[in-house]
Amino acid sequence: MDEEKMVKKEDQEVVRDVGKWEWSELIKKEDWWAIWLGFIILIAGMVIYFPHSGEMKAKIEKANVEWGEAAKRTDAFKTIAWYKLSDAKKKAEARKIKTGKWLSKFTKKPHKWSGNPLGAFVMGKEGAEAKNQKGLEKYEKAKAAEKEAFAAAQEAESRAETAGFKDESLNAEAKSSIAKWRDTHLKASKAKGKTKNKPYNQIGYLIGLGVFFAIFFGIGTAAMGRPVGQFLVAFIFVYLITVLAFTASSQATMKQYGIGYAAWAIIFGMLISNTVGTPKWAMPAVQTEYYIKTGLVLLGAKILFEKIIVIGTAGIFVAWVVTPTVWLITYWFGQKIIKMPSKRLNATICSDMSVCGVSAAIATAAACKAKKEELTLAVGLSLVFTSIMMIVMPIIIKATFPVDKQLVLGGAWMGGTIDATGAVAAAGAFLGEKALYVAATIKMIQNVLIGVIAFFVALYFTTRVEAAETGQKVGLMEIWYRFPKFVLGFIVASIVFSLLYTSYNAEMSGLGRAMIDRGTIKGMSDLFRGWFFALSFVSIGLATNFRELSEHFRGGKPLILYVTGQSFNLILTLTVAYIMFYIIFPGLTATI
After folding, report:
1. Is residue 432 part of a domain?
2. Nearest CA to 263 among 387, 141, 373?
3. Quick one: which of 58, 334, 476, 487 is 20 to 30 A from 193 by CA?
4. What residues make up the domain containing 435?
5. How far, in Å, CA of 227 to CA of 284, rounded?
6. From residue 369, how far is each of 348, 540, 557 by CA, in Å?
7. What pLDDT sits at residue 474?
8. Which value, in Å, is the radius of gyration of the alpha carbons in the chain?
9. For residues 359 and 447, what is the distance between their CA atoms, to the nearest angstrom?
10. Cα separation of 202 and 112, whole Å?
């Protein structure tokens, strides 16, 4: 049965199922299996890390004894002691336990390499020592710069303290000097990490990881009634391309220019599908939504509401007011001005561009039943512009923004406009530690809207668009049927882990970060989520045909839509961020 006939059959089944609910859907539908598999990963992380809360608490108590009193000296600015206390608390990370280190090694992507691709998988003792020696030279320079900046910060803070922290000019000078020290500290920390290379052989781990993934997704495949044997054989092909994509993205030049694994995964997949063709025997493992929906459930656990509240109303307003405004106006522009032929493509591009890139695009595509070619086009546009923006935006901010507004305003601007979370972090780090914090937090606040947008898209397309197409009214059960159920997993994971984070922090400040953020999330969820996304991107490429894609690109309307929408997004986000952080909530901005 070819794909077109399969789609028609599925549509007929949807019509027959309207108004019905069967409990068997919980083990037969892809969305539910994405939830179950995501929860398995999260629960496993809790089982591994939660018993070690006592160890983490002891480290935090030690930090409080050493720096706690000194950190409370002033409310005028964050003192050196405050940062020292923060740094000491950050050393409490549940993922640093023995099992966590093994998990990190087991799920490790191919290493950074420059000349020989084998360096991505194997490096001997001599190679490690050579890299350490090279890194040591840079570290010594970075360490010297940090030492100099630290001395200047100490001197500036001492002058402010002598004045009882009541002289505004001395306080501002101290705050600026401490910020410079923190930026040099961030650079020195990164440089230090490049002096700790050890010999490795990643091949065995990659084989083991591939076997684990095949079994992991194979369980759901079997439960859904799909031929599991064919899936397991096909998965080898998809997994090998995924490893190849990570290898290409870890090449030194590619890393420098921000050409990540997502782009390579789609490129390699499309090269195969549009030249020799994707083998039919490989198609059972080309499961774009199965992989990424599982990854999105894991992403939900990363949305921690207590961390969102820290940035305050200003950040929430930037993300939750600007984003839907940009979505609605861009959708209207696509329909009324440039007259996009496909409303589904229009909606998918709007979510891709205004919310958070690929994750939002896939959730929206599922909600409105966009074609796979339309999803591919939206994702492709996102990847191209994300790579450009993560490099260009920090340069523009450095060159044009006032020095005192580069970190907070620049970070908020990038966090609200650059599509991918990883790209946001990379761009923020280019400006400094504070910009990285603001940008990442704004993006995290924005990610909450994935489920909200998906719900309203499903509601709109079932009650308005499809009702107009078919001439039939749509009942509530059809809306429920259409709503992407994996979003429920995303929401539940976010709520549960937000409550756990708050609970740990209620017991001791910093324990939530140690156990949740730097435990189950960084030490378990994030390790697997990147792989799941990569498997999905490879599947997108393998299932995409250039001829089908070109049909949707005809007239350049998708490109016009994306560029116009993103331009509006850039202007509105910058304007609202400035108003929120510097006019309405300047007090909040001063404490960041």
Report:
1. yes
2. 387
3. 58
4. 310-487+527-591
5. 8
6. 10, 15, 20
7. 63
8. 25
9. 9
10. 12
Asked if residues 283 and 6 have their Cβ atoms less than 8 Å apart, the reply is no
Question: What is the residue-averaged pLDDT of the chain?
Answer: 87
Domain-embedded: residue 11: no
Task: List, for residues 376-395, the tens digit of each pLDDT value.
Answer: 888 888 888 887 888 889 99
* Contact (Cβ atoms closer than 8 angstroms) between residue 110 and residue 209: no
Tally the domains of the chain.
2
What size, in residues, is the chain?
Answer: 592
Q: Which of 198, 224, 254 is the last residue of a domain?
A: 198
* Predicted pLDDT at 238: 97
Q: In the listed set 177, 198, 219, which residue is the last one of a domain according to the structure? A: 198
Residues 6 or more apart whose Cβ sits within 8 Å of residue 368 = 343, 344, 347, 348, 457, 458, 461, 465
CA atoms within 13 A on the CB side of 480: 10
- Nearest-angstrom CA–CA distance, 447 and 300: 9
Positive or negative: CA dihedral 44, 286, 34, 265 = positive
In the numeric block, the tokens 């539940």 are attached to 492
Integer Cα distance of 279 and 131 in angstroms: 41
Specify the 3-state DSSP secondary structure of 123: strand
572 and 440 within one domain: yes
Q: Which tokens belong to 159?
A: 């002058």
* Residue 400 and residue 533 in one domain: yes
> What pLDDT was estimated at residue 31?
87
Distance CA 127, CA 79 (A): 41
Following DSSP, what letter does each residue of 246-299 receive, concatenated? HHHHTBHHHHHTT--HHHHHHHHHHHHHTTT---GGGGGG--HHHHHHHHHHHH
Span 50-81, pLDDT tens digits:
999 999 999 999 999 998 888 888 888 889 99
Q: Whose CA is closest to 204, among 196, 216, 212? A: 212
Tell me how crowded residue 482 is: count the other CB atoms within 10 A of its CB.
21
The pLDDT-based confidence of 570 (bands split at 50, 70, 90) is very high
Distance CA 489, CA 39 (A): 8
**For the residues of 349-381, what is the DSSP string, one character each?**
HHHIIIIITHHHHHHHHHHHT--HHHHHHHHHH
What pLDDT band is residue 118 in, cutting at 50, 70 and 90?
A: very high
- Report the 3 state secondary structure along 177-230: HHHHHHHHHHHHHHHHHCCCCCCEECHHHHHHHHHHHHHHHHHHHHHCCCCHHH
pLDDT at 472: 67
**Which is it for the CA torsion 67, 70, 75, 76, positive or negative?**
negative
pLDDT confidence of residue 323: 92
**Each residue of 296-318: pLDDT tens digit?**
889 888 888 777 777 767 888 88
DSSP H stretches of helix in 476-544: 476-482, 486-507, 511-512, 526-542
Task: Give the CA distances from residue 260 to residues 118, 265, 291, 384, 489, in Å, rounded to whole numbers and listed in that order.
Answer: 19, 9, 18, 10, 27
In sequence order, the β-bridge partners of residue 200 are 123
- pTM score, whole prediction: 0.81
Q: Is 122 helix (H, G, I), strand (E, B) or coil?
A: strand
